[in-house]
Amino acid sequence: MPTNKFNPWEIKGDINYKKLIKEFGISPLNQLPEIFNKEILFRRKIIFAHRDIQRILQAIQNKKKFVMMTGLMPTGKFHLGHMIIARQMVFYQNLGAKIYIAVADIEAYNARGQSLEQSKKIAEDYILNYIALGLKPQNCEIYFQSERSKDAKKSNAYYRLQNLLSNHATFNEFKAVYGDITPGKMLSSLLQASDMLHPQLKEFENICPVIVPVGIDQDPHIRLTRDISKRVKNPKFTQLSSTYNLFISGLKGGKMSASDPTSYIASTDSPKEVKKKINKYAFSGGQPTLEEHRKKGGNPDIDVSYQYLKILEQDDNKLKEIYNNYKSGKLLTGELKALTIDTINNFLKQHQAKMKDAKKDIDKYLA
Ligand code: TRP
Fold it and tell me: How far, in Å, is the centroid of ligand 1 from the Cα of 72?
């Protein structure tokens, strides 16, 4: 029996979202303003839960300043799973948010033993992907945890906050939130707390609402940071808001894992690789024989190819038709896979061209 593990650095076993929502005390995401429906991730409930999103909705409605802050641990290739956060950066930027993105190179060093140089190289590839997905250089700060800013005032403020926050947390809280805890992990989580709170310092944007979109595995960090920030008297932080997305299924089920190339579709995969990966590995919700499939139909809800269509196919009617036809047995697994391969390859062809183009612009993002 595999033991179930669920913390920001390790996920093992099945993910029971309902249970996590309850345990973590987050709220399902229900009615959102119409403008959110433009993004299929909201429309299709791939972003499914939140804390305090109303503060952000108010800021949008009243045209008040707000920040979207998130971070990435640059390990392995950029894959379809990473797109979920990247698309939200672009979405909130288009809504007028100021975007803060932390490259968690210190966390990668402390939690994964990856060198800062290696993180830097990989991060550049991630940033090219963000640009290709539509992130603009205006109103956008991308920084490395190991080098917040060339401006000493800003840099000092960020690291000072990390240090001062430690006074407001207890060891038992760390243990309760993370289970296994090492000095490196503890520092990384305080640094992540500073990532999320520092936009509100006077050296940055001043007190304002901040939304942090993450995968649900990151909620322990958010819980801890929300608790700590309440205890800080000066400045009086506005409580963080957050949203949570489902993990994009790995090819064989489970999560897309950067350490296993047969678990993901990378943004740099060739059409041939995509075809091979989908045909060979993508877990099917179909029946074992053709006769059975025609009679009983397939299960799109567990079919991995269908999950990929759900994040890539923009046309709701087309998606619905595929869903219904697969469920009724009219559409066969081979046909569903062929459709998926086509959709991914069409997307990647354009995306890869944009990534190539993005190379000349990357310095505008790394001020
Ligand atoms: N811990 C995050 C990860 O593993 C990366 C991260 C660092 C982050 N700082 C952050 C995420 C701030 C959200 C907000 O991917």
Answer: 5
